[in-house]
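Backbone-to-sequence.
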């Protein structure tokens, strides 16, 4: 996914100065608020809060030794920061490619997931590796990544929060069905309406942004309690800033 979108970024040859100014001094039009909120939702995704909380438990450490716990926290902090940085860079690549080619044009409002690849192909041509296929590979990888994290989060919740003791294959089947069945229904219902599918996708990302506080606030409350976290509880400044 990262390689595909980085390839497209290189093909468009954007201005480094303008790109840096846009990152450091962002400007947001009122017409793009929905897309901006949706980007937050599709990058962070509320279920990833539960997923990372569960993945932390995969490291076997002696919780009675403060040094070992601190070491694990340091590693996970680096891992989370790296994941968010890579996600930011990939989204920067995608946004830059389309902004460079179509911002301010008449066709900008007609571009969606269904026809984006064709518009890129018409704009930048074929070359050694047609950009249409590079976009398709990146889009497929992005979908797989999102689906995998959602499924893993569902499995952890079913096995932990809901305390359902099921065989692994049955639990995987149920959680995957919750992801696949609604997707198939949406695909069938909106099969003849590409524009409606794009609108639905945008509002789903906005919905994920709205759900983030419902996952994050309880987590912040828990990690700020000394009886749960001990010496590793977060301070009031961090709690308020988050």
């Amino acid at each position: 996914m990262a390689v595909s979108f980085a390839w497209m970024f290189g093909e468009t040859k954007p201005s480094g100065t303008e790109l840096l100014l846009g990152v450091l001094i962002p400007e947001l039009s009122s017409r793009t608020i929905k897309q901006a909120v949706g980007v937050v939702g599709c990058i962070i995704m509320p279920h990833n809060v539960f997923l990372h909380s569960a993945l932390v438990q995969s490291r076997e450490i002696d919780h009675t030794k403060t040094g070992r716990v601190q070491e694990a926290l340091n590693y996970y902090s680096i891992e989370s920061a790296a994941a968010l940085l890579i996600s930011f860079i990939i989204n920067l690549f995608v946004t830059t490619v389309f902004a460079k080619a179509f911002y301010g044009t008449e066709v900008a409002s007609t571009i969606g997931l269904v026809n984006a690849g064709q518009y890129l192909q018409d704009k930048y041509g074929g070359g050694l590796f047609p950009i249409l296929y590079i976009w398709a590979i990146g889009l497929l990888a992005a979908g797989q990544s999102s689906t995998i994290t959602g499924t893993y989060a569902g499995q952890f919740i079913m096995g932990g929060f809901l305390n359902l003791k099921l065989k692994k294959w049955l639990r995987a089947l149920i959680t995957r069905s919750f992801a696949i069945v609604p997707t198939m229904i949406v695909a069938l219902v909106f099969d003849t309406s590409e524009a409606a599918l794009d609108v639905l996708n945008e509002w789903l990302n906005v919905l994920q942004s709205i759900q983030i506080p419902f996952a994050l606030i309880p987590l912040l409350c828990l990690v700020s309690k000394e009886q749960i976290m001990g010496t590793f509880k977060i301070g009031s400044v961090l709690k308020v800033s988050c």
